Amino acid sequence: MSRVGKKPVAVPAGVTARVEGQLVVIKGGKGELNFTAPQEVSVKLEDGGVVVTPLSEEKRARAMWGTTRARVQNLVIGVTKGFEKKLEINGVGYKAAVAGKNLQLSLGYSHDVIYPIPAGVTIVAPKPTEITIAGIDKQQVGQVAAEIRDFRGPEPYKGKGVKYAGEFIFRKEGKKK
Known about the structure:
single chain, Outer Surface Protein A, domain 3
């Protein structure tokens, strides 16, 4: 039994929720998000909350039960508070700057990396060594952060590269002569 799936998703004041078949639409102060639930679960709007129940006792149905409830919860959080990821840049000469609708990254290559900022996401570089990614869709914010990190992931010897704020990089010892 899913412990997460048993709890209904509370819809706070100022947020409207609609359920049309398997489509869940959440609208709030920051925008509108929707999610199509898998066929293994049923989604209903009851007592000011969204209730997710599995349609059978199969393993996939039970797995989708908790996952669907968590995805709907993320929709509600997204339209009320939004999501944010922070990245840190370490390395001599490594820096980031927002230029119009692009993120310009100097990461030790022969050229700057230009990353076009997707719609629905805001990127701010308050310092040349920090990047803040914000938006209402948790999946999209995480995807953008992962794509930026992939341009130059942190290396284990000096720790140079782009990493998540608070991420621990396991450092290796260099070869001894």
